[in-house]
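Technical annex B. To support the medicinal chemistry partners, we prepared a structural model of the target in complex with NAP, based solely on the information shown next.
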Amino acid sequence: MKILITGSNGLLGQKLLHKLRLDKNIDLHATSIGDNRVTVKEGYAYHSLDITNKQEVYDLIDKIKPNVILNTAAMTNVDECEIKRDECENLNINSVKYLVSASKDFNSHIIHISTDFIYDGKKGFYSEEDKANPLSFYGLSKLRSEDFLKSTDCKWTIIRTIVVYGVTEKPKKNNIILWAKKSLEEGKEISVVKDQFRAPTFAEDLADACIAAFKKKKYGIFNVSSEEIISIYDIVLRVAKFYNLNTGLIKKISTKDLNQRAVRPYKTGFVLNKAKELLNYSPHSIEESLIEITKQLKKI
Ligand SMILES: NC(=O)c1ccc[n+]([C@@H]2O[C@H](COP(=O)([O-])OP(=O)(O)OC[C@H]3O[C@@H](n4cnc5c(N)ncnc54)[C@H](OP(=O)(O)O)[C@@H]3O)[C@@H](O)[C@H]2O)c1
């Protein structure tokens, strides 16, 4: 089976790469923009690929002829998406169009990652059938990419997820758990929102769901997160308590104090029944994933 990962330098991309590279039945092709930032080079081929470059996408897909495309590359900075809308549209929507048309002749199964930000956050605990109503351009771009995939006759799976966290090599961006841990270890005071509720997702769980989707040939939409819906403030508090760090350094703030460019949903979180039933999805709790994260941090 030939598999192509886009965005393999990113959080989810690296997890997928490590989980698949030692599978003897898989011919793995990792791609990301620029050089490979993953130290281990065995078990896969790396190709530099800018997925907004139509010709590059066509040439590489034509060369590899992948059975599966795991599309993790995206513009993920929500405020940046609000400002650089053309860039966001190119990366989050147009690239999906290129991937679909370039892989048409090979009947590739495209697994595409979407977000809880397609919802407006008024209800929380969303199922796959709940109505989307994005509040930000990022959310809208992801919804449009979903709508495009749904309109095609290719084999597609959309996996929506929420606040993904985990350990990666040479990360370009932070995630809530590692940021909180590092800041508190350094004795820094941090301000954290108390009025946004999420079900944070361990990157290993998300990668397992993506892999199950192609191994089990499951198509359609899947909502994938952790079970528990808690405030961002409580996520950070749990990290502090787990590592026995000074909780006095964590200051509660409101969303309005942040003055962010993009509007965020108040409360998301997912109903996981479909993923549990069809993908054998079994997410870790925050504490379970912190045990794993602690081990992984010792290795890098
Ligand atoms: N992280 C979250 O909290 C979260 C929540 C909901 C949904 N999602 C979705 O989950 C997916 C994976 O997220 P993630 O956290 O793994 O993202 P990530 O860490 O930002 O990884 C995305 C990767 O895409 C690469 N990339 C950027 N522009 C590219 C281009 N033009 N061509 C090819 N590669 C490009 C980036 O390269 P550089 O590293 O060099 O910049 C990065 O390595 C995304 O679709 C995201 O929207 C994420």
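Notes passed to the chemistry partners:
The longest strand covers residues 109-115.
The two ends are 30 Å apart (CA to CA).
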